[in-house]
Amino acid sequence: MVRLTGTFSRIGVCKVLVAGDIFLDTYTIGKAKRISPEAPVAVIQVHHEEHRPGGAGNVILNLVSLGAEVVALGRIGDDSAGKKLTHSFIEESVSVEGIFTQKEYSTPVKNRIIAENQQIVRVDHEELKNISPELEQGIIDQLPELFQGVQVVAISDYGKGFLSKTLLKHIIQYAKERNLPVVTDPKGIEFDKYTGTTLIKPNLGEAYAAANLPLDAPIAHVAERILSLSKADMVMITRSEAGISLFHRDGTRQDYPVRIREIKDVTGAGDTVLAMLTCAMANGLAMDETVQLCNVAAGIAIERFGCARVSLSDLAKRLLEFDVVNKVFDEEHLFALQEALRGKNVSLLGISGEAGLTTAIFGTVRKLAHREGWDLLIYIRDPNPDEEFVNMLASLHDVDFIILNTDSLRNLCNLIEPDEVYNLQEGVLNKLEHVEHFLSEI
User: 185 catalytic, yes or no?
Assistant: First the structure.
């Protein structure tokens, strides 16, 4: 795997418009205690129910967990499921100006019956209904307002009739006129309706079906056909446990294996990839780094049950397994660190590296780090610390994150409010009563 040095630190705030089919995912959770006398099926004693946005809504939730500002563009029905969706988005600070109600349309509901951490059956309440001409035109007229401040557009098509060819054309065209990248998760086999998208992201089965090629055809031929159909700059084919393959219009190809510990549930993994992809592109990361981040995020998602939300904190932990340099942050790249430390107990330790990695530093790190549920954040006081010292410190398992530059430390302290503050000077460890005492000493 190519080193992701500093990649995590460069993830910042971005604004994304997500257009697509929105569902209400319901989880009915209980225990199977007996077999029904009416039929050879289990009787589930329900403990509780959970409701979450699904479909494009799951993409939105993942983007929120990655720190993005999101504008949702979709439709609901005038029903209780639609109200639950709108309420969920508002609670997540998602803009709902683009959530439109269509008359005589029922919000899709997918109810998963869960017992003993196993999905017993899924009950779908939905109807395939095309977007009405009046609603379609109303959305097109409102695109200028919805696109305000947007940096990238994500299209999450579940084939339920909302994303008509006309609406897709206007969304993609409007984005291209403003030089905004468009990332599309397609549905069906008519990929020409996504003409002009920057990147199209089918899974392996969708790719072969859209290309109308036999399953034994080389995947490179499939990608070439999809690029021709969609006029996209790139096609990313997700291949489950085989990883991700990225193809460019110039014929180049990169393959990225996925690293996972255990496959529990692949549900929603494609949504996680779409969210990570748009977030990385909005932050201007190189495609090589972007796809690897997508692989990491997907690996985390499929280790969890149901439609999982992958946060920046989750991403940080996994990336550190691959490259400890992701621990190091400077003044310009603080957003991801703030998110990674959100809601955690943090110990802040100030040190100097002028004498190298001394026994005093090593002993202090071990002493402060061996506490469950705490993260150790080290600030290096030196204006220009030695690179080798920083790398050695980052290689220590006990060190969670390292920060450079006084101004960035002050900003970070104001945001995360560390629970404990220490300063190691001339081999003596002092615990300070307040972070301001620490800032004045350095």
Answer: no
